[in-house]
Amino acid sequence: MARYAMVTDLRKCVACQACTVACSAEWEVPAGHGRTHVRTTPLAGIFPDLTSSPHVGQCNQCDHPPCVEPCPSGATYQDAGGIVRVDVDLCIGCGFCVDACPYEARFINPRTKKVDKCDFCRPRIERGEEPACVATCTAHAKYFGDLEDRDGEVHRLIFHDGARRIETKAIAVGPNVFYLGRPEHLDLVLTSFPPRPPRLLTAGEAWRKLLRPLVIGMVGASFLGQAVAFFTQLHKGEGDFEE
Prior knowledge:
Layout: E1 4-9, H1 18-27, E2 37-40, E3 44-46, E4 49-51, E5 54-57, E6 76-78, E7 84-86, H2 96-100, E8 107-108, E9 115-116, H3 122-126, H4 132-136, E10 142-146, H5 153-159, E11 164-165, E12 177-180, H6 183-192, H7 203-242
């Protein structure tokens, strides 16, 4: 079974945003949101020797995804190819997984009220096509393939050319989006856009965000059912009285 990964060569990336546009068009992403983000690091160095680097961010399809466990409905899961996916039929839009993602790669889609994220364009993969961002990259800076295919380009870029993961000792969850670039640029990307500790809900937050609305809804439904039964019985009693 293929184990999918992506490599972005920051030496080639020109931050043109073609990948973000292609992704948004492919998935009809609402304005103001994105499955892919292109950002530029702040300037570093001493004038006139200044430097910066682009960074293309998306879901990293982590080996140990912190977003899976907090999902109360089982909507977020990891498939056999290592891709972290969302079953929209199960998703309740609670946002727990959004808070748990170290790379801030998830969002609540305002149109569907469900969690949205990159899934390496899984339907395109199943058709034998590249992800939209890879196929559209004008600088040919993005590569996609099977991490375990020893003859593949992605395997070579990672294991022979030294493509790096953006992770720290504290947040090491095995991201499967790798980056090539000058060491100082990769260090600058890691410093500028580091993974953050997963924010898992406390008991109080779980009560406020999920359990309390659920309990209120159940209590309301119970009262509504009792009211309907009462007025039904009342109406039936009045009919019997009239007879």
